[in-house]
Amino acid sequence: QVQLVESGGGSAQPGGSLRLSCAGSGGTLDPYAIGWFRQAPGKEREAVSCVSNADGGTHYADSVKGRFTISRDSAMNSVYLQMNSLKPEDTAVYYCNLKSGPYDYWGQGTQVTVSS
């Protein structure tokens, strides 16, 4: 069974940057699309970005387009989310997700707080 562990969260000032990591264990992430989601207090969980399996195609929510970049590294069995030009509204717990057929795996989440 695949396990996902997020890291890299923390505090940043508006305009700053953070890089989140999603490390897979118990199996390779290569065959699967991986998504990043976030949930702010009192709000529904929302999709932020995803990267496909084979061709590495990416998709971004309009709210993060041009500021966030998703990437994957097969050698590290990891997926990353580079977050630049952070805004206070990016404050949330960020989760990575693997969903394919009967499989639906989530990490424990990593907190991102953007404030001055």
What does this structure look like?
- This protein is an all-beta fold.
- Helix content is 0%, strand content 53%.
- It is built from no helices and eleven strands.
- The protein has strands at 3-7, 10-12, 18-25, 34-39, 46-51, 58-60, 68-73, 78-83, 92-100, 103-106, 110-114.
- Strands 2, 4, 5, 6, 9, 10 and 11 form a seven-stranded mixed β-sheet that branches. A four-stranded antiparallel β-sheet has the order 1-3-8-7, with no helix packed on it.
- It is globular.
- Strand element count: 11
Average pLDDT metric: 96
Low-confidence stretches: none
Note the beta-strand portion.
over 45%
> What helical percentage do the residues reach?
under 10%
Shape: globular
Oligomer: single chain
- Strand and helix order: EEEEEEEEEEE
The first-to-last residue Cα distance is 40 Å
In DSSP terms (H or I, runs of 4 or more residues), the helix count works out at: 0
CA radius of gyration is: 13 Å
Largest sheet: 7 strands, mixed
Structural class of the secondary elements?
Answer: mainly beta
Brief write-up:
This protein is mainly beta and 116 residues long.
Give structural attributes:
single chain, four-stranded antiparallel β-sheet, seven-stranded mixed β-sheet, 116 residues, mainly beta, globular
Topology:
Elements: E1 3-7, E2 10-12, E3 18-25, E4 34-39, E5 46-51, E6 58-60, E7 68-73, E8 78-83, E9 92-100, E10 103-106, E11 110-114
